[in-house]
Structure formats: C-alpha cells, structure tokens
Design brief:
homodimer; about 325 residues; alpha/beta; Rossmann fold; 2 domains; six-stranded mixed sheet; four-stranded parallel sheet; about 15% strand; globular
Chain lengths: ~325, ~325
C-alpha cells in the first residue's frame, strides 16, 4: 500500500539530504504551449536534484529505512542510469556499502560517475545475462539488500515527495504530468496529488515506441512490449511494475504519448530558451504539453523535469539531428 | 557619477519588470574549485534573466527613465548580441519604438529574436561601416535616443541591481567576480557591493586575448587592443568605457584572465554538472574560480553567470572541440 502518510514520512526523512528543487516558469514556453488555450506551466526541476534526477529521492528513502543489520550488509542495485548514481550516493552518504550491476558496454561516463559516488561496479554481459538475475545473485552472494528501481513502496514514497513540494509551492493546478517508465514516479506523484486535491488530473507520459503503460492501461492488465530504442533511454522499460500498475490504473486520467522528434524538440526548447539541461526522458512530460496532447481545458499545469543526465556526445548528436 | 542610491532607485524602477534571478550553489563545482582552499560559490543566474542576460536590467532602467517626449521619439541601439534583444524587449514592454543596428552577417537566430521582440532591425556592412556611427545616423534621422551598451550611468545602475539582489540573498561574501567587456556590469556591481560592504573584493574577468581592461588597469589609462576572436563573443570590446573605466580603477582588486579553453571547459562543467546553459562570455567569471585565478584566501565567492544566449550550432561546435 502507498498512502500520502508514507510520502509525508518519506519527505520528513529525506528532506535534510535532498535538494528542495526550484519550480520555474517560462513565458516563452507558456506562449508556445498556449495554441489552444492560455496555459501556465510550472516546472519542478528534478534535473537539479542531487545526482541529476528524482531517483535520489527514492534511493535515499530506501536506504534511510534500512535496519541496522541491513545497513551492515550493504545494498545492491541494477541500473545503467540514474538509479545507479542515486543508490551509490545515497548509500555513501549513509555509510552503507553499495554494489551496482551495470552492462559491460555502459557509457564510461556513467560507470565513472557511479564509482565516483563510492559504489562498486559489477559488470554483466547484456547479450547473455539478465541484469535482474545478476543483481539478485550479487545480493545473495554479498548478503546485501536489493534496492529496486521502481516496484517498491519505499521507492514510490520517495519519488512522490517531489509532488508534495510542487503542490506546496503551487497549490492550484489543473493537472500534473510526469515521464513514465516503470511507474514509480507516477505512483508516488499521483498518490500525493490525489490525496491533497482529488480534482487535479494526473497524466503519465510515455514515448510512442515504448508504450507498455498505455497498452496496459487500455487493456486493464500489464502488457509487455518489445524493447524500444527511443532516445528517452530512461523510459525503455517494457512493462509496468506489479505494484505500480494498480496505482496507475486508479490514478491516471489517461496515458499520453510523445514521439522522439517531439522529445528532442522540447529538449532543445528547454535548453536554448529556458537555459536548463534536461535529458530526453526528462523532457517527455514537458513535450506532451508543448505538443498539445492535453485536453484544452488544462490551464495551470505542473510538469516534472525528471532528470538532466545526458552525455556530451549524446547531446551533440541530439542537437545535430534537430538542426 | 554612479552611487548606490542610483542603483537602489534603478532596482525599485525595474523590479516589477525583470526576473529576480535565483542564486544557485553546486557541491560539485565547490569541490572542483577547492584545490587550494575550501570554497563555496554562489552563482547569480542572469542567464535566466528575461532575454537571457543581465543586459535586460540596464536596458529596462534606461527606457523607464525616458521623458514623455523621448518615449514618443523611440530608441536606437547598436549590438549584434544581448544588448539588442534587451533593448528590443524593454522598449516593446514600455510601448516605445526601437531600431537595432546589426551587422548584415549577424546570425539569423539573433536577428529573428530581436525582431520577435518587436524591434526594427537595420543592417550595416561590418567591413566598411562603423556600427556606432551608423547607429548615430539612424538615431538622428529618426529623432530617436541612442541607448548605449555600457558607457552610461543609467545602464550601469541597471546592471548593478543584480549585485543588490545577490548580497541580499548572501550577505557574507569575500569577493564577487563578473565577466568584463565594456565594464558596465562591473561598474554597477562593484559600486553596489563596495557601498554595502567595502571589505568584499571585486574582480572583473576578461578573456586572455581581449585584455584591454587588464592593460588599461595596469597602465592607469584606457588602452585599445587589437580585435579579438575569443569564443566569449560578448567580451570582444577593445577598450574600456570612458565612464566605466574610472569606476573600475577605484573598485577593482585586480583584473583576472581566463583562456578560451578554460571558458569552454567551465561552460561544459556548468552545463553537464549543474544543468545550466551559459554562453561563453557568461562562463568567464566562473572560469576564473574553477581555474584557481583567485587569491587563496577567497572562500565565499559570488559569481555572476551573465548570460545564456548561445546558438545551437555554436554550442555543438564548442562541445565537439571540448571532447
């Protein structure tokens, strides 16, 4: 179960350790997004969160919930991205050992960032091994606890804290949009939001080519889609979580879709007009607003810019393709 | 004359029209800058100012000071960069006509941005004409008032308002660094700073290849240097202002130099670690901190990130050269 009380407790627990990220507005974004109705958009800047994404909230909450015995045994996680860095730093700050399982072909910058945060990196072969199994084996061998990326109530409660802060800063919203992969961020954000004001509509946003959440939402049960190569590399999960999906079914108004071209254009808009770096996954929710995927009556809109970790090479490629 | 009172009056005048830009900190920047001493850096984000740079402060102050007669006659300015956009938007918001003189080979994006802010763009041939003379001719023909980019007390007072805000947010600084071109920003910032706390050291920062301010400061009189092709295109002015230089002589602790490579590396650090886009000129002051140009006893440091207007093509080029 996930309730607003869990999210409030998580917030009290993690607040001394995470950034209270700013909420920014942009007149040029508002103008560009106001084709069909006058819109005001409030961006919760989790790209400015420690380790560069909202994942640090959930990871910190998980690790601060460990028992003394669990702390001694350490933690493990599987991720090639933001969850890895989040668990690594959250563990280091709590004085807990962390092992992160990453594919052997992970970008060097991500491997080094994870090591720089003090974690041990354990490689696996993406072609021949399943990362979750590898991580479970590592956890078993080391006697450590696996910190899952999304399908866990402590993680969801941590991610939901960003909605508490957003609604404290801007209470009168018509809707909130968040990028959706495994659904941990959406579960936390929508649970907090609906408890505070049931009238606020909550929308998860997915890339068109990784629409497992949309298909599952329409069908009423969890669907697994083929692997996607969307530029939103944080949103390539192929099926919603077991625990997150029932929450999403209850809380989501609808699931919105954006194309890779729309995501890239939005990333460019946010970079050059708003001067903020977001990663492709981090731009997905904003993209749904900019490209008019919302019902016309949505006027005051909360958007989570979920992360800002993009490699220089990847950014150059994105900007070149955009030109 | 420029006094703190002028700057306070300017602040009261422009505050309803300009963004109160955030002051941000970054643990990773602090760590990287703390080679010789433990440092804490406070960034005043004028890249998040309207029109993307601090220039909007001075332009707004100038235009709000116009008499009714001057307002009717309109304004003119010469600039291919941030001052053009600042004057264009400040004029439009005040209901004043603006003509901006730009080189005929100015980047299309900048011409279009200036027009989008409602100004008329008048081109001149950079090889054969002097832009200041062209602008004076335009102003004479149209009966309009020239809004100079830096050598003007109203402009300096407007630019100085960002220091009032910074010191309100973070009073106990050891020093403040700002990028320096014609010296308008430095004159305003240092005048405000020294009046509030004479113990705070003020440093203008220049590109090595555009060191007219350093040479002038050392020699005790205004020196003109050959044109520079530094990547910090906003800092290519070849001689300090007549009015700004005497202020700089009194207020500057020293003039600091940074290389183009240091500027590019700093821009990359701010982009990928702090997730903020700054233009090369806007990164100059931060670069002097990151590359240890300050005396070792400077611990609490204010830095103005002066602007964030960089073309996509220029950013790609910068990032590629950096790799």
């Amino acid at each position: 179960m996930l309730t607003i009380e869990h999210i409030r407790e998580a917030h009290a627990r993690i607040a001394p350790h995470v950034h209270r990220t700013p909420v920014v507005t942009s007149r040029s974004f508002d103008e560009a997004a106001s084709e069909t109705a006058e819109r005001r958009v409030f961006f919760k800047c989790e790209n400015l969160q420690r380790t560069g994404s909202f994942k640090f909230r959930g990871a910190t909450n998980s690790i601060l919930c460990l028992t003394e015995d669990e702390r001694r045994r350490g933690v493990a996680a599987f991720s090639s991205g933001n969850h890895a860095q989040a668990v690594a730093l959250a563990a280091r700050k709590a004085g807990v050992r962390a092992s992160i399982v990453m594919p052997s072909d992970a970008p060097r910058a991500k491997v080094e960032a994870t090591r720089a945060y003090g974690a041990e990196v354990i490689f696996y072969d993406r072609q021949r091994e399943d990362r979750e199994q590898v991580a479970r084996r590592v956890a078993e061998r080391e006697g450590s606890l696996l910190v899952p990326p999304f399908d866990d109530y402590r993680i969801m409660a941590g991610q939901g804290t960003c909605a508490l802060e957003l609604l404290e800063d801007v209470p009168d919203l018509d809707c909130i949009l968040v990028p959706c992969s495994g659904g941990g961020l959406f579960a936390g954000v929508s649970t907090a939001t609906k408890a505070i004001n049931p009238g606020i509509h909550c929308f998860p946003v997915e890339p068109e080519t990784a629409d497992d959440t949309l298909q599952s939402f329409r069908k009423g049960e969890r669907v697994t889609t083929p692997p996607s190569s969307t530029i939103a590399d944080g949103l390539r999960v192929v099926t919603p979580g077991k625990l997150t999906f029932p929450i999403l079914q209850r809380m989501a108004e609808d699931v919105l879709m954006v194309s890779d071209e729309e995501i890239a254009a939005t990333l460019g808009f946010i970079l050059f007009r708003m001067k903020l770096l977001v990663e492709p996954s981090g731009a997905a929710a904003a993209s749904a607003v900019l490209f008019q995927k919302l019902p016309p009556d949505a006027r005051r809109i909360g958007v989570v810019l979920s992360g800002g970790n993009v490699d220089p090479e990847a950014l150059v490629k994105l900007l070149e393709e955009r030109n």
